[in-house]
Batch of 2 targets.
Target 1
Amino acid sequence: METEHFSGILAPALTAFTEQFEIDTERTVAHFQWLLKQGCDALVVFGTTSEANSLSVAERTRFLEYAISNGLDPRNVLPGTGCCSLPDSVVLSKHAIGLECPGVLTLPPFYYKAVSDEGLFRYFATLIERVGDDRLRIYLYHIPPISQVAISFDLIERLIREFPGVVVGIKDSSGDWEHTQQLIDRFAPGGFRVFPGNEMHLLPALRTGGKGCISAFANINPAILQEVFQKWQRPEAENLQEEVERQGRAVRQYPVIPALKAILAESRKDPGWENIRPPLVPLSAAQREGLLAELGAATRQ
Amino acid sequence: METEHFSGILAPALTAFTEQFEIDTERTVAHFQWLLKQGCDALVVFGTTSEANSLSVAERTRFLEYAISNGLDPRNVLPGTGCCSLPDSVVLSKHAIGLECPGVLTLPPFYYKAVSDEGLFRYFATLIERVGDDRLRIYLYHIPPISQVAISFDLIERLIREFPGVVVGIKDSSGDWEHTQQLIDRFAPGGFRVFPGNEMHLLPALRTGGKGCISAFANINPAILQEVFQKWQRPEAENLQEEVERQGRAVRQYPVIPALKAILAESRKDPGWENIRPPLVPLSAAQREGLLAELGAATRQ
């Protein structure tokens, strides 16, 4: 990883919970260590996959402090900090930057729908002003299938123009390669860092000027993603990417977050990994069985 | 109003902000007093119209305490307490009940989409368990156009069955009269209190067993809604309801929250009422002019 900016394979790291739906801090930090050892360049703590928006602000700040004081290097962390409410996003962003995280991944406010670009611009501008820290680096988080509020090209252009060096990148979880490619074509030449939010688009993104990917899939097989990242200029990258896609497709037939948790529970012989905070629910036994069979079939021996 | 339950006209009360986007506590509480004086039976403090999900938990608890200590009778308040995160909803619900509010209006968790009824049931069941207060009365908040997460009939049935006397009503902001009517037909005979979230459906709801309405429109003309409520069994209710609909239609051509704020700013000669927290924005000058003209034309002289 470069000192100041993220690149490569980032995992939106899963959060483990106890049976009482409290963050299982120890199990989660052990997972972080595994992810970094297995090939993640950095971690998104508090992404969608982390069930971040099912956590309170206090849970998020306390847990990030816990993780760092238990060995997580903040320079490897891009925390999610975007909430519905401006003050919550300010508190989380300020906190993350204060802990020396090199950037934050920020959702647009997502309660109100059909909001204007002007309203979103005011939101981000006020956020930047209130954080009031030269170290702030914002990666925008575009995930319209879930947030239902999109970050338009016009908005990105305006934010980059008004806040150069502050609004520095984007996670594109549209799931739409055309959209990712357009983002790369339009903004990567100016230094904007584009990360598809889907492992399916890792190799195409690297070949056209993207910086890596931030994919839920990295929670279960970061090594193969790192291999694609290392070898993207070589012919063998094709086969690796195809295998990523086979595995990714097997997982994405199921609700992704409980599916990933079921895979970790199985591979670590640790059923506690299936705990998930409402409104999400674990996979059913039949789903779990189907997933593990299909993922096994999709994985090279 | 009955001692224990809400009925009649409830306003999801607007929140005033300063130019720096902080809650203008004094202006907001003055508005609460006006609403109650003008005919509201009770107030939803922290509804969608209140920009509640643009506020932090701390802002919400502090402001509710402020309002009560400045004369707002908690028995007239149904606070909105539903957030994306279970612990936030627990804190807000517990706080409201502790302050002697007779109930809370609770959104389903709205970040994750396509969640299961089982997941939503677990969410509400855990909320009720954690609040752990016999005084808790939950009014469900169904507003799929914004939350994008619906509260199904099956879920309502299960919640009523499992938590009789706790899950006692619903605000139906589907905007779909068929849906409201089905809710009334199915659940009102058992004592479940159904409030359409739209003034357009006030009279039809009262005639079929609904309890009143909780409508944004009540912020600007609670008196006429109260008149419909008082006279719903008399023939003149028809004309009153028609006037409500004419005025409501004039307002609903514009983004509703800034439109209502523009109307208050105009009628009170207080431009500060137009302040609105991002991501929402005030109406443009042209919108404001159009709105005031159309509302004027729709209002009886």
Note: The mean pLDDT of chain A is 97.
Target 2
Amino acid sequence: MAGRYISDLGQHEHMWTHPVNFSTFDEFETGIILSEALPFIQKFRGKTIVVKYGGAAMKSEALQASVIADIVLLACVGLRIVFVHGGGPEINQWLGRLNIQPNFLNGLRVTDASTMEIVSMVLVGKVNKHLVALINKAGATAVGLSGIDGRLLIARPSPNSSQLGFVGDIASVDPTIIRPLIDNNHIPVIASVAADLNGQPYNINADTAAGELAAALGAEKLILLTDVAGILENREDPGSLVKQIDIKGVKKMIEDGKVAGGMIPKVSCCIRSLAQGVRTTSIIDGRLKHSLLLEILTDEGAGTMITG
Amino acid sequence: MAGRYISDLGQHEHMWTHPVNFSTFDEFETGIILSEALPFIQKFRGKTIVVKYGGAAMKSEALQASVIADIVLLACVGLRIVFVHGGGPEINQWLGRLNIQPNFLNGLRVTDASTMEIVSMVLVGKVNKHLVALINKAGATAVGLSGIDGRLLIARPSPNSSQLGFVGDIASVDPTIIRPLIDNNHIPVIASVAADLNGQPYNINADTAAGELAAALGAEKLILLTDVAGILENREDPGSLVKQIDIKGVKKMIEDGKVAGGMIPKVSCCIRSLAQGVRTTSIIDGRLKHSLLLEILTDEGAGTMITG
Amino acid sequence: MAGRYISDLGQHEHMWTHPVNFSTFDEFETGIILSEALPFIQKFRGKTIVVKYGGAAMKSEALQASVIADIVLLACVGLRIVFVHGGGPEINQWLGRLNIQPNFLNGLRVTDASTMEIVSMVLVGKVNKHLVALINKAGATAVGLSGIDGRLLIARPSPNSSQLGFVGDIASVDPTIIRPLIDNNHIPVIASVAADLNGQPYNINADTAAGELAAALGAEKLILLTDVAGILENREDPGSLVKQIDIKGVKKMIEDGKVAGGMIPKVSCCIRSLAQGVRTTSIIDGRLKHSLLLEILTDEGAGTMITG
Amino acid sequence: MAGRYISDLGQHEHMWTHPVNFSTFDEFETGIILSEALPFIQKFRGKTIVVKYGGAAMKSEALQASVIADIVLLACVGLRIVFVHGGGPEINQWLGRLNIQPNFLNGLRVTDASTMEIVSMVLVGKVNKHLVALINKAGATAVGLSGIDGRLLIARPSPNSSQLGFVGDIASVDPTIIRPLIDNNHIPVIASVAADLNGQPYNINADTAAGELAAALGAEKLILLTDVAGILENREDPGSLVKQIDIKGVKKMIEDGKVAGGMIPKVSCCIRSLAQGVRTTSIIDGRLKHSLLLEILTDEGAGTMITG
Amino acid sequence: MAGRYISDLGQHEHMWTHPVNFSTFDEFETGIILSEALPFIQKFRGKTIVVKYGGAAMKSEALQASVIADIVLLACVGLRIVFVHGGGPEINQWLGRLNIQPNFLNGLRVTDASTMEIVSMVLVGKVNKHLVALINKAGATAVGLSGIDGRLLIARPSPNSSQLGFVGDIASVDPTIIRPLIDNNHIPVIASVAADLNGQPYNINADTAAGELAAALGAEKLILLTDVAGILENREDPGSLVKQIDIKGVKKMIEDGKVAGGMIPKVSCCIRSLAQGVRTTSIIDGRLKHSLLLEILTDEGAGTMITG
Amino acid sequence: MAGRYISDLGQHEHMWTHPVNFSTFDEFETGIILSEALPFIQKFRGKTIVVKYGGAAMKSEALQASVIADIVLLACVGLRIVFVHGGGPEINQWLGRLNIQPNFLNGLRVTDASTMEIVSMVLVGKVNKHLVALINKAGATAVGLSGIDGRLLIARPSPNSSQLGFVGDIASVDPTIIRPLIDNNHIPVIASVAADLNGQPYNINADTAAGELAAALGAEKLILLTDVAGILENREDPGSLVKQIDIKGVKKMIEDGKVAGGMIPKVSCCIRSLAQGVRTTSIIDGRLKHSLLLEILTDEGAGTMITG
């Protein structure tokens, strides 16, 4: 006899009005057992988790599907997910299609006005809406926003903007428009673009945007999806992953040169969030399928947790 | 390195203030995968499920632990559980200890005043509080009640009470005190004892109590835990389980003699609940571990679902 | 011509859905005049009053009827009553019926596991439900609870538990489940039994339970119904009742030996409540009919009021 | 020893912030016993009672004190009192002092512009504020209003206004400003003056104003304080009081001439209120002390109750 | 073709249930342009503005019409207006009509009991209701109150009351009854009469009443309508208007004798309000049409703004 | 002396946290007088107005500034504005820059996948965010959304999509995410792009989107900004503007051929909105500066109002 509920799964009158698309989870190899996840679900229900999405997890369709499935599941069991993203490789591709020559200064891209125009169109008009549509299709309800909307983020030129163009820092955060969304179990999907007080758009570092939002929302957790395994005690030894460390410890690792390069701004972002009251922050491995679930719903985790 | 969260799991400020006791789930053999359960969690979040607990699942400690684990898990992922129980074998044991001679009429026990006194003490003062303590220990928050409290159930003598003594029917249901509990994610645990308008306690059939409560609460689902596999097309053939049937179908099975004996009052109870607006009812196999989870979170189910 | 309202008195749609049973008040000899009670009703409307019920007032049916009538009346004119009770003589009677030999150590009863089982059954399953039924019959709405329900009280072994068995202290109070009840004009009736974190039930001193609940609820008043007239200046002289005294004064009386014996723990309980913010506490004479009304609704009072 | 509470009675932080003045009740001869009043308090708690005050009860200071004491007591035990008054003899006295010659037409006073000016000043600026001050002094909180305020009553000229001047009918009622007052346990005291759409004040019959307000508020009860015992079966026989009658019965009494003269408009006012949903109406004897309490809190009553 | 909306303007179901009377604005010569007023409307929307009305603006009908039009407009665009008034010349006129001889002491009127009676009748029963009717007619909703109502203002004898009679100071302010009115976009119109705890009415200075109300309401702005241009740097030079000054500056002007005479109590009233948290206060020229609008909705203002 | 408020205008703690930029209104030639606008502000305060923005008003910067100024002003005086826009000429320009050849069928553009990608990026990522930034800069708070966000609009292929590509009809509207925004005085700015149930984006006609949103929101008014004066009685005679017409009348004009061509779908859109409960609809002249203000705040209007 055929399944009894299947035909009925589209009829949720309450809160979750759309069924999860089953195929979304076809490749869900982690197989977290419900009962094992229970204590973590209990711990995080009703808590706000800000996830910065980018890097490899954005480039691979399979990894993207896994991230989308994870946040839908987490929202479904009662967590308040805020999803912040950058642009990934699509920006370069569109700049190429429009024959806008990349202009670099000391290895950093110069974001002139016409580049900024493309950045905004791609991030807000394409990537953001694609992510919103994927989440909606998977059964949760997403609302795409940028920092411009509701003055969520006000930008100011970063100190090196005279050289690098419209690269901005965050002058202020106003999460007013986010709260009713997460209170309604909606998932805000936020493109890291913001305007200054004159309405000029700026490109904002997505890690920074996620960290400042987590602080302004009093989040339980900030999670940065990256292309590394986490913080390694010995960068040569992939088996030397530091699973948990506090601010003091990680500052020592920076002094000792063990944390270096591109990891430093990510760690700094975590430290700033912790200093503003976020309870824990994690730098996790976005190259792993379902690393978000592993980080939140298992004791093992999927990278390095930095605590205050 | 030891688990990162374990030491922290007791610190839920929000809603779930006590950690699930891990050992509760040690024997959780069903191993329902979180992602597979997701569509069902979505479907039932925020919905009220009334569970009638009794029979074998009450007699075996292992089965009891499995039922407790299941309802804690279901409450934790957002379902509103109302847990109704009868007395099980403890009543007989205490009657024996007190040398109260069982008195039977046509095979039915006569509940005289002194028997009723024991029934109430055992159901309300022992079984109920034991279940509440088990649920609390497992990490959810239970509140034990009887039909007397808040006039939840008003009893009246059943037609045959002149012969059988203080065996009552339900004259009215007032679920006022239940709603704030389930709105707060608490689990009401209800002993099937009620008083009439003069304050005289009566023993109430627990299936009936569960069914009337489900109707008064506008529940999504009524589940009766029983000592059989469900409704069988052929009572001789355990493989002939009817997984889903509607009112018309099951009435036909009664007419045809396929549903008979002790199953008839259970089916009738389901039909009355459906007629009063409960969306689905299930008669499931309480002899199976985690049959509640199987019934609610899988398409397979754990018995027979009767629909309107 | 017959009374105009009588036939109509059952039709309260609002809040008070059941008529007061007139006979309840037949023996209401105090005859407090409505207009004289008015300033006190004004003073206490909407305030929380925790009443510890026990002793003689529990043993005599007439006194019990008077206490029930009083709390129904007080709830009806707008006070928020929380009613805490111990077990009275019924526990001994049931222990006798079950041939459980009382075991005493230095004059204190040893509560072993089988004694505790009976204590819980009698307090929660019999006394509590009887009180609930009496209040309901008198026209108010009572909800019976124990300290186990909703983790209202968490117990821990008292220092002398190694000798005395399951006699517990109160480790914590969580009045979450009480507030919606008293906000709805319901009367919580609380049996002084609680479980520890492992679910093991303990017998809790009912005075202590009432005092800690009063503190946790920020009550206006804690009233202990006792078998004495109150605190006497001269224990030989029943006319030397101290009507009002402050903490400093009553501590001096203990030093001077004027307050002694079983009165000391009651006074200490009052002092602890006052120290935690309860506004006034009273030790009143439960042997007097309607002493609760006299204490709350007259300036004369019915015992000794201790203030901060 | 002196009273314990007296010095404390001024300290009600909650709702009732001012003590009842004890002397107000000195002459409270009715002596309604609190316990006897209880079922009626239960019945009417939270219900809206509109009282029309006038006649003898307004002229005698002792009767006025008794009425004020009654409504303060009724508000204190939880009824929602709306107090509507006319002008009494003060209007004539002030017209006299200002040498405004009364002008009569067929025995009815002509309310010209200068008369209307005095009517408004006396009713609103003197009688109303005096009543408000008396209620406030007695410990409740009154708010004085006229039909002009918040467009509570909109007037239109009555059919005979061309001859009688500014005598108005009620064109519409908007009780918006009354509800937050009675929800806060305040007592609205309403002078029966209203303006038309052009702002011209009119004198409104106070019985009519009370009746229309009762209807607009969905009141439980409309009580008209009058100078008669109620409706008599035989106008010659004071012992023939009709305690309760329905609309049909009272219409018959009008046809039969048993109800006649000034009683007819009062009865008609009751009938209109009943037709608009007021549950019961009473015409009571304002010459009796505490007739309001007798009517509301005893089965005996203090006049004639007309029901729908 | 005739106007499309005109016939429809009476049909506001929401909040503003009555159309503005067009003719009210006929003489609106200031012609403030909507777009110019916008930043000020933005600034003051939802803020509480207490306006003291008296003097010339009360004597001239044209000025009165202009003030009424202004407050209706201000309430309509979202400001919360509280309107406090004294008595103007009407009191003298009525004292004359009643042959009550004015009695002066050192140039100050003695308010004996019979004078106070007239003051209350005129202020509360005539002036107040006239203002309420004018505002209602102009399309907003006014509610007339005195300090007696809801114990809004409690009076105490002023130090010189033994000589001057019933002239009172303000002992306390309880704005409970004002808040629901202004939250509903109603305009409270308050006559400056209050009673002491015994119910004795007193005449209260209207500037003082307005200032204390502004403080108790946490108002954004207190505006005193006066018969002067504001504070002049040089009293001989009308062109020397001080447009803005802080407390320190205005205290210096008093010391220097530049602020003197009747201006001193008005300035003191402003200083007291500022000290209690009112953000700005203004002394404006009530002889100018629409000075209220000019003060609130233009940068120019209409007098002197004193800031903290 | 310099302006008193200017320096202070940035300090709105309440609701309007950003000052209007004064220069925005420099060219505000209509000069609507505040007092003349008052009755219309009264009429529309708190009402929802859906504005479809497009055409000439989008192409000219001066007209765009005028529209932005108008909606900021309207929101500021309390109207709930929902702003729906299409793409204007920017889409073509970007298609050109990307060398995507326009493909026409019977004069209609074929929206293939790569065209749709550009449409979405331009509408959502560029035009929408530009409008949001302009409104924010002008002092109100805008939130940019598309039909994809929160499943605001679900698309389905339009009947001719097989030929025309991703041109969609509206299958359903869910305004859940709009309500908290307009309740908070935010201005939703909505790009007319929506996804079907599979997440595929479609281009939606902006008039249709505005009309369906107005219906779903129960709007007071739908306003379509167009490039014509409104409906003309005689298309040759610009002076023959029909200021107001009902559904029956305008259907007759279609039959008579007086309404033809591109005006027919606009009129049909209005009729559908009216049929679903929108109170009035207007087709106004977007080529006029401040036509929105003229339409809403004057009796003259700025085009044709169609009523039900």
Note: The domain at 48-307 of chain F is CATH 3.40.1160.10 (Carbamate kinase).
